[in-house]
Fold these 2 entries.
Entry 1:
Amino acid sequence: MTRGARAARIALLAISFGFLGLLLIAPLGAVLAQAFASGFGGWLSSLADPDTVASIRLTLLTAAIVVPVNTLFGIAAAWAVARFEFRGKSLLVTLIDLPLAISPVVAGLVLVFLFGAHGWFGGWLIERGFSVIFAVPGIVLATIFISFPYVARELIPLMQQQGSDDEVAALSLGARPWTSFVRITLPKIRWGLLYGVILCNARVMGEFGAVSVVSGHIRGLTNTMPLQVEILYNEYDFVAAFAVASLLALLAILTLVAKTLVEWRSRTAGR
Amino acid sequence: MVRGRIAAPSVLPGFGLTFGFTAFFLSAVILLPLAALVIRALEIPPGELLRLLADERALASYRLSFGAAGLAAAINAIFGFVVAWSLVRYDFPGRRLLDTMIDLPFALPTAVSGIALVTVFSPGGWLGGPLALAGVEVAYTRLGVVVALVLIGLPFVVRSVQPALVEVHRDLEDAAESLGAGGFAVFRRIILPTVLPALATGFTLAFARGIGEYGSIVFISGNLPFETEITPLLIVTRLEQFDYAGAAALGFFMLATSFVMLLAINAVQGWGQRRLGLGAGR
């Protein structure tokens, strides 16, 4: 390596480390430092607050509904798009990606116009005692909207690349469609599927903007964990806000670890 | 394709079921709600709609949202390129860890990024303190909005540029160097042309995401009307004041912007493919 190349290497690495240190490491460190500012006991007692427990429960409930729904959708969409030629396919793929381009606030807003008190269906539903906006169904719908593409996006290119020869062979040998799907398709796509589910789950549990518009911020009832972080922070209860934030940061780190493992597994499994 | 059929014939089963479910779910969950917003906005008389869209406060919010997103995407194009270069070309301790960390802004909930950035950049914070001494205020200023958007946009640029950098022909670089080209000439004549489409894609993706970003910004920006108020926040404010027409108009504008950005992303990617395809044929 020439002296110039070595100098460039040192300079570029220093810039990279400096930039990522300021932008990624410092904020992550700040969350943890603030969360444990009054010790482990303080952290634990912040999390034991009933409203915080309720927010954790709501976030888990939302994920338990939304992730399976979007996984099912992702598999169906990938099967239709990757296995068949049909008119309007590229339009369908574009529409599947659409939520990624839309502001989360707009995602919440559209639900207000459908299900709010003055929305298309809101009045009718509210007369019958069923609230969507400022209630759990609105949170679930908003979360489905914003996390909708994640599984489909991972599966479509994977299944297109894998082709359908194995399935055709199984079917021509008399396998039932469901058997062929469970025994051949699922094992082939499992790592990509898991990857999509992990990313989808991270987005679902962490969503803020869309949920914030439809939730109404009712303590103990319609606050998810990110909304609970906001409320506690705005009340200057920093230890509690960062305690909840540290749980979400932990979720993010686990997501990255799982993602790395899955990438590594799918590379070695592909060989 | 056979006339009168949606799909070309195939021995594989399940087209009707999966396509039907996909189309139904997409329509119910995405298209119907979007239609509700569009119709709501178009019910507003045109003159009134224009007045709501061109309102002074709205104009100030567009300037901030688009300006900060553009500036942040440009900063990311430069630093994201350096980071991608370091990850692809250099081997150093902690490279795998750093590579994994790039996706942190994707995985970290935006509200957490938001309060973390304020803590670091407020005058009492680790970085805000030294910066305040130097006369630079980040928290509760427009600069804070840019910082939040740099964080959010970083993975888009790095993840777009990384695969393109792998594709750069090292032998071309070596040949150029052996013919006496300096480091900068190699960068400008060989590396940049190959990576430019990916860089443009990353810039556009980061810009598109930045325009709509909400969670990471609202904590650090201070949310002052005309000063540090982004368009998504103005939508939320209008909604909280029960100004549904105002919220619908701005939401409609943001939605139209999203479609334009999708077209722009497709155009940039198409340009990149044509450009690289041409380069290979020469």
Entry 2:
Amino acid sequence: MKLSISRYDPERDAKPFLQDYEIDLVATDHMLLDVLLRVKAQDNTLSFRRSCREGVCGSDAMNINGRNGLACITRVRELREPVVIRPLPGFPIIRDLFVDMTQFFKQYDSIKPYLVNPEPPPEKERLQSPAERDKLNGAYECILCACCSSQCPSYWWNPDKFVGPAGLIQAYRFIFDSRDRATKERLDDLDNDPYRLFRCRTIMNCAEVCPKGLEPVGAIERIRLKIAGVTDPVGALDVHPPISPR
Amino acid sequence: MRTRFTGLKAWWVQRVSAVYMLLFVLFLLYSFALQPLRAFSQWHAWMARPVTSVAFLVFFTALLGHMWVGMRDVLLDYARPAALRQVLLFASAFGLLGLGVWLLWILLRLQG
Amino acid sequence: MTPPDQRLDASGDRLASQIPETSARDIALVHRPVFLNLMRIQLPVGALTSIGHRISGVVLIASVPIAVYLLGLSLGDEAGFLQVKALFTRFAVKAAALVMIWALAQHVLGGVRHLLTDFDIGSPLRVARRSAWFVNLAAVAVALFAAGALW
């Protein structure tokens, strides 16, 4: 199998370049991560993040044949060759496939990703009905891998001002949590300037590439409708079977 | 950024103006399909009718509002640094105002 | 400055915002390249519709002053009206009109799709992809139809 992987060593290279590799696939190679680890065994200067190898930590998000995905759940035999692997678009490249996620996490942090409830805690749990809990389905599963934000053109143009689909789906998760008491503040924060939420043009790249099949665009739409005072959504967010890179 | 024309207000202006313009254009296409324009006198008389003129006035207002939100979106996305963006936004607003005055003159001239 | 214990995550680590400003700034000061070659990034059909919507919008904005001028000319007097009619027999004008008609169709159809998804109609990805295809193809169809009508 032929691969072209983006390489960049800040101490040696002026800019990133593609390096070709050739790997003989064996029967146990199922996912792209398996192959990348064997590439690293061949050339151990290649650097990339990886951890859980089962699609739940989000570490190995990368741009595979032009489309973002998680290397550990991308079936390697379904990929067009040569497999071109680049770092997540729009994010500063630290080295090889390592990108700087600082800005991304700053945006996440800015939407206050924690429950705000000043009421005295009850004896046991803060109760939620099944219907109330259902509203969080399609949002809580987000693993913050950044596949969505790094495929969103609006985020490319203004990563410091537009919160991005990942931050906004997390904002949704707290705005529509019945146990949270800061709804008005959360909505005001997203409406107060024309960038935080309203840069979204419903391009839908986010939903296309989410490796968990989530649809941040739907979450953003619901937040917008709530800000407008038009509707209060019921039920879970739409999800779909994830679409892998080809 | 001015907080007056926040994300939500702009979004509503864009959507409401779009709906009005869509209905208006469909109505225009229907009218012209039924009665195609042949002569200047027919065209002038039809436009000069108060109903038509007022409907067009509302249409132009919607058009300018819609154009403003669209231009602003493009500038907010791409124009930097902030100072240049402000200049371009002002220039666009000025241009649209000019267009508005021109259109008003064309409509008023019909009544003269 | 918030008290330290309110901004810890579940395992007791500091949240990103609590990392001292210097480290974020230090990272920003180092020049880092960015991969943003649009020729190498896949553009799904929805992205093409969105690009078409924006380009058509800009084309329409550019054509409004011209349209206003023609409107004024045609309503001024008989001579002006005939002048406008004569203009539309010229090839260059017809070609420009064709581009504007495509732009109008792309923008309006894309806009209707946006209006519907705003109100939760046709917003799941599968449905939205199909509507995106429809918008792109229908706009071209309108342009072809208009070409037939113009020539």
